[in-house]
Amino acid sequence: MDIMDVIDQAKDNATVNRVFGEPITREGVTVVPVAKIAGGGGGGRGKQEGGERPGEGSGGGYGLSATPAGVFVIKDGEVRWQPAVDVNRIVLGGQILGVVLLLTVRAIVRMTTRRRRGRRIRKS
Q1: In angstroms, rounded to a whole number, what is the distance separating the alpha carbons of residues 111 and 124?
Q2: Cα–Cα distance between 97 and 30 in angstroms, integer?
């Protein structure tokens, strides 16, 4: 596959339809789903001269990622944004906060213990 074919394929995949989904209408309320799209790509081409295995080389690839961002809710002519809640991110944030809290408490306990030991040695 040629690198230009990979680039053309990436362009075709990066459309507005990847960000905004089809509107859904029920009982006078229209919901338009929205996603965050991230993508990247790379490629290379080279020709090895001489050596044991002369020949041509090329390569390329790309990646595309979509994450729900939320929905636009349209009701009675008014538009409201309703963000998507990423429970995994909330749980991860809580775990990181817990580890930081435990490390902080540990450091405080060690500092207090060292001060007490230092006072005992001075009194002796």
Answers
A1: 21
A2: 38
